[in-house]
TrEMBL record:
Protein name, per record: Nitroreductase
InterPro entries (UniProt xref): Nitroreductase (IPR029479), Nitroreductase-like (IPR000415), Nitroreductase/BluB (IPR050627)
Keyword flag Flavoprotein: yes
Keywords: Flavoprotein, FMN, Oxidoreductase
SUPFAM superfamilies listed in its UniProt record: FMN-dependent nitroreductase-like
Keyword match Calcium: no
Domain Nitroreductase as annotated: residue spans: 14-199
Annotated GO MF terms: oxidoreductase activity
Pfam families assigned: Nitroreductase (PF00881)
Domain of life of the organism encoding this protein: Bacteria
Length: 224
């Protein structure tokens, strides 16, 4: 194995969905390095349909408050439909992740009120000082969204390499119309997800677990 692959694999293994952050802001130069690195992701015909609208300081608080109001009063209206179901192993992995989170933060599976409160932490950005709204060009449709998935992956890996924590959140994109209005984004932009990021609180209990990964046989199908 090359040194480059070893370093990449170490970054891949180190990345996790951070659900507890320190409030200290990330320097602007570091954020710019992060976004530029994510922008190296490949895309169909080099279209690069992604853009990251990133909050800083008081704007993070202003957006959080507006989002919480939308959660309370608006019906979810995502630009892309939610999954119809999570069949087989996909559902099992989803359940395992949820149970690991509740166990880490001390929430009983039967405690619906506490589970709801934990879910609402998505809209508090888990205390992160910054949130990036990730959007793509609607005219590029599914392929633009797929390309932007590569940007999201690169963003979270670059954050890890810079010593930052991050978490990609589809839940925030449920309020796409409100997000476009809040940031004055045109209707031609699809709201795909948010990424909350900042300095990770390694002592936060929600950061104490790691999800399992599928075995090679589950994801690799050699032919010939």
């Amino acid at each position: 194995m090359t040194d480059e692959f070893t370093r990449l694999r170490q970054t891949l293994d180190a990345r996790y969905s951070c659900r507890g952050f320190h409030p200290d802001p990330v320097p602007e130069a570091t954020i710019q390095h992060l976004v530029m690195a994510a922008g190296r992701a490949p895309s169909w015909c080099n279209a690069q349909p992604w853009k990251a609208t990133v909050t800083h300081g008081a704007e993070t608080v202003r957006f959080r408050d507006a989002l919480l109001a939308a959660v309370e009063h608006d019906n979810p209206a995502p630009d892309l439909p939610w999954p119809e179901s999570y069949p087989g192993a996909h559902g099992a992995r989803r359940l395992e992740c949820g149970l690991q989170l509740y166990e880490a933060v001390g929430i009983a599976r039967s405690d619906r009120a506490a589970r709801t409160e934990q879910s609402l932490q998505n809209y508090h950005f888990f205390g992160a000082p910054h949130v990036a709204i990730i959007h793509s060009e609607a005219a590029l449709g599914t392929y633009g969204a797929m390309d932007t998935g590569g940007f999201i992956t690169a963003f979270t890996l670059a954050a890890t390499a810079l010593g930052l924590g991050s978490i990609a959140q589809a839940s925030v994109a449920a309020y796409a119309p409100m997000i476009r209005a809040h940031f004055d984004l045109p209707e031609s932009r699809l709201i795909l997800c948010a990424i909350s990021f900042g300095w990770p609180d390694t002592n936060h209990p929600a950061n104490a677990f790691r999800t399992s990964r599928a075995a090679l046989d589950d994801i690799y199908d050699p032919r010939g």
